[in-house]
């Protein structure tokens, strides 16, 4: 992709004396010295000029945190991926089937999934997230119980599936039947919730690169989710992150798996179209 | 939405929490330009306690967004402007208006309104993520607003 364009951009950035310590840095993300990840991209047209460059949250973390994500042996999120790989191959539920029985090698069959989700689903008549699709297989094809949204096994599986798309660029569809869901997500993104009256945009569009106390604000992109956070030492789902961010505005938040967060996930993912998948990313 | 809860909360604030001579949030008189001319408590604030309001996370947490170069507070943010010399730029009435409800002075600003109790979307019960209940009140008390105003008034260059 935009490799040329990217090097031009970083050359320009280097030449600009105004980029202080507060901005995103200019490092390059290559995982396992092998997978090149696009971490700065040209904004999609539907962003309507809201961002002049789309930037991964990786650029807003310090060198130590960045390095952890660059090597699977160091990345604790890979333990969740391994757990899920074992689950993938294990039969569960009344039908006595495993994921592998239907989908074979995840490295083949799950490649590209994260890059296009959330996605409108014809059969369900709604936008579905990866976790919802996994639960559909569990309840309808395996005779197993649905996993609780963003709980351990669901997050591990989402991370494993996501990791098969590493380096591919996010490209979620927002047109056709997905449009009303995207519109709803956009409205939520710009709503100033809570007693502090802050929207996602207040922090992640207007103020990325700035410090809110000790926190270096990123653009709040989801290309690295589920993400391993050093702070709580586990893999975290995008909906749980949304919930925390809205709670921090002193608002009554929404729940993981809610219609609001499904729509918001689609919208936020679309803001990151063009960024490479990093799952499982590492953040503080 | 939770309109009933809110009105109830406002009534509680007005009904029970206000000491004598204290202006309730919904009774604050703000000029067209966002100034609040008179003290909310009828008394001057205490600048030292005002510094606490400014710097403590559990109080005003102004340092989340502001820095004052002469003050040593760990990890000040920079979402808002430096407050050095704020009292040279703004009168006391203007500063009070900015703390009470900065949206009247700076349209659309991200700075929260510290002495207002209505008009919020999905107001919560502090940082619990749950809906506001009848304990809902302004971010700062009238005394705390006056204290932080007294503190801001010392910021002269």
List the helices and strands and how they pair.
The complex is a heterodimer of chains A (284) and B (157).
Chain A: H1 3-15, E1 30-31, E2 35-36, E3 40-41, E4 54-55, H2 63-69, H3 77-88, H4 99-103, H5 106-109, H6 113-116, E5 119-121, E6 126-128, H7 130-142, H8 152-163, H9 179-190, H10 200-204, E7 211-212, E8 215-216, E9 227-229, E10 234-236, H11 238-247, H12 259-271, E11 281-283
Parallel strand pairs in A: 9-11
Antiparallel strand pairs in A: 1-2, 3-4, 5-6, 7-8, 9-10
Helix pairs in contact in A: 3-8, 9-12
Chain B: H1 3-17, H2 47-55, H3 86-89, H4 92-101, H5 142-152
Helix pairs in contact in B: 2-5, 4-5
Active site (chain A): 245 (cysteine persulfide intermediate)
Cofactor (chain A): heme c; heme
EC number (chain A): 2.8.5.2
Low-confidence segments of chain A, given as residue ranges, are 1-21
Strand content of chain B: under 5%
Largest sheet of chain B: none
Number of strands of chain A: 11
User: Total helix count of chain B?
Assistant: 5
The largest sheet of chain A has its strands arranged as: 10-9-11
| Low-pLDDT ranges of chain B | 1-16
Corresponding CATH architecture of chain A: Orthogonal Bundle
State the oligomer: heterodimer
Indicate how many domains the architecture of chain B comprises.
Answer: 1
Number of helices of chain A: 12
What is the mean predicted local confidence, pLDDT of chain B? 90
Signal peptide (chain B): 1-19
GO molecular function (chain B): electron transfer activity; heme binding; metal ion binding
Organism (chain B): Aquicoccus porphyridii
Protein name (chain B): Sulfur oxidation c-type cytochrome SoxX
Give an overview of the whole structure.
The complex is a heterodimer of chains A (284) and B (157). With 284 residues, chain A is mostly helical. Chain A has a single domain (41-95, 102-282), classed as Cytochrome c-like domain (Cytochrome Bc1 Complex, Chain D, domain 2, Orthogonal Bundle). In chain A, 39% of the residues lie in helices and 10% in strands. A 3-stranded mixed sheet of chain A has the order 10-9-11. A two-stranded antiparallel sheet of chain A has the order 1-2. In chain A, strands 3-4 form a two-stranded antiparallel ribbon. In chain A, strand 1 and strand 2 (35-36) form a beta hairpin. In chain A, helix 3 (77-88) crosses helix 8 and helix 9 (179-190) packs across helix 12 (259-271). Chain B is mainly alpha-helical and 157 residues long. Chain B contains 5 helices and no strands. Chain B has helices at residues 3-17, 47-55, 86-89, 92-101, 142-152. In chain B, helix 2 (47-55) crosses helix 5 (142-152) and helix 4 (92-101) crosses helix 5 (142-152). Mean pLDDT of chain B is 90; it is low at 1-16. Chains A and B meet through strand 7 and helix 11 of A and loops of B. Chain B: Residues 45-156 form the Cytochrome c domain. Chain B: Keywords: Heme, Iron, Metal-binding, Signal. Chain B: It holds the Pfam family Cytochrom_C.
């Amino acid at each position: 992709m935009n490799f040329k364009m990217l090097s031009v951009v970083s050359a320009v950035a280097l030449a600009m004396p105004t980029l202080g310590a507060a901005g995103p840095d200019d490092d390059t993300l290559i995982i396992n010295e092998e997978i090149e990840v696009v971490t700065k991209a040209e904004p999609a047209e539907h962003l309507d000029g809201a961002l002049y460059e789309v930037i991964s949250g990786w650029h807003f973390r310090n060198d130590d945190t960045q390095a952890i994500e660059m090597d699977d042996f160091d990345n604790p999120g890979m333990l969740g991926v391994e757990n899920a790989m074992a689950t993938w191959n294990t039969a569960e539920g009344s039908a006595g089937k495993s994921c592998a029985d239907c989908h074979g090698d995840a490295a083949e069959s799950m490649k590209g999934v994260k890059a296009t989700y959330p996605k409108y689903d014809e059969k369900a008549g709604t936008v579905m997230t990866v976790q919802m699709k996994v639960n559909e297989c569990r309840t309808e094809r395996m005779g197993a119980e649905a996993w609780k949204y963003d709980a351990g096994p669901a997050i591990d599986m989402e991370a494993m599936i996501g990791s098969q798309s590493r380096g591919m660029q996010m490209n979620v569809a927002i047109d056709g039947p997905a449009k009303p869901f995207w519109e709803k997500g956009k409205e939520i993104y710009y709503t100033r919730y809570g007693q502090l009256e802050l929207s996602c945009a207040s922090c992640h569009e207007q103020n990325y690169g700035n410090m809110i106390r000790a926190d270096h604000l990123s653009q709040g992109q989801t290309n690295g989710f589920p993400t391993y956070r050093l702070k709580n030492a586990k893999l975290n789902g995008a909906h749980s992150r949304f919930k925390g961010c809205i709670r921090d505005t002193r608002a009554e938040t929404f729940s993981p798996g809610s219609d609001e967060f499904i729509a918001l996930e689609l919208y936020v993912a679309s803001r990151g179209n063009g960024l490479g998948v990093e799952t499982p990313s590492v953040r503080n | 939405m939770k309109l009933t809860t809110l009105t109830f909360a406002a009534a509680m604030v007005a009904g029970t929490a206000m000491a004598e001579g204290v202006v309730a949030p919904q009774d604050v008189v703000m000029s067209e330009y966002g100034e609040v001319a008179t003290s909310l408590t009828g008394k001057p604030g205490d600048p030292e306690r005002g510094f606490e309001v400014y710097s403590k996370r559990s109080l005003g947490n102004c340092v989340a967004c502001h820095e004052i170069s002469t003050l040593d507070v760990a990890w000040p943010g920079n979402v808002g402007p430096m407050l050095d010399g704020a009292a040279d730029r703004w009168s006391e009435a203007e500063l009070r208006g900015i703390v009470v409800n900065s949206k009247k002075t700076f349209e659309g600003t991200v700075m929260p309104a510290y002495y207002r109790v209505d008009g919020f979307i999905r107001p919560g019960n502090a940082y619990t993520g749950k809906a506001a209940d009848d304990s809902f009140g302004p971010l700062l008390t009238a005394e705390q607003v006056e204290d932080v105003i007294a503190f801001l008034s010392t910021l002269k260059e």
